[in-house]
Recover the amino acids of this structure.
């Protein structure tokens, strides 16, 4: 593969745990305020704890995924509130078994047969024509990595990994 570089930024959705903690903290604030009317010290403590949980949860709700593709190697990072960046997953061109549209029968078949052990979805959950599944094999275990690629990134894989890229 020739020297190539692409960087994609995809808006994500907060996870289930984040949504549960957010809802729980709002509920605790309401309960704490009600309790503060009768047992002021305990109610205020509950409100303070709930506000801390709410602030921490709010800092994790604005999520973006960044894909950096360099010569076929892919690094995926998650960015919280446009400030905190954390590397989440990396794979090399040699580890890719194949790349196909996420809703492809090729991927569906491997998922239903149980050949793919782990799925890593680095998108907002909406499936469109730019959503691709990368079937990766690491240490003999197949994993599915779901990415929403830009046109430039798609072209990089179409030209550099011709024998691994499927349009079905």
């Amino acid at each position: 593969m020739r020297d190539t570089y692409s960087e994609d930024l995809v808006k994500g959705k907060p996870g289930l745990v984040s949504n549960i903690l957010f809802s729980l903290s709002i509920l605790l604030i309401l309960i704490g305020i009600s309790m503060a009317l009768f047992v002021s010290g305990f109610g205020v403590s509950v409100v303070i704890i709930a506000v801390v949980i709410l602030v921490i949860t709010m800092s994790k709700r604005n999520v973006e995924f960044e894909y950096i593709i360099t010569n076929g190697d892919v690094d995926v990072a998650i960015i919280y509130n446009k400030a905190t960046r954390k590397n989440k997953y990396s794979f090399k061109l040699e580890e890719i078994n194949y790349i196909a549209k996420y809703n492809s029968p090729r991927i569906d078949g491997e998922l239903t047969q149980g050949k793919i052990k782990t799925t890593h979805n680095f998108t907002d959950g909406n499936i469109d024509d730019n959503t691709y599944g990368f079937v990766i094999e690491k240490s003999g275990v197949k994993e599915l990595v779901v990415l929403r690629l830009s046109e430039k990134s798609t072209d990089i894989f179409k030209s550099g990994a011709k024998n691994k890229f499927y349009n079905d």
User: Anything to note?
Assistant: The helical segments are 16-38, 40-58, 105-112, 151-160. The mean pLDDT is 88. DSSP finds four helices and eight strands in the chain.
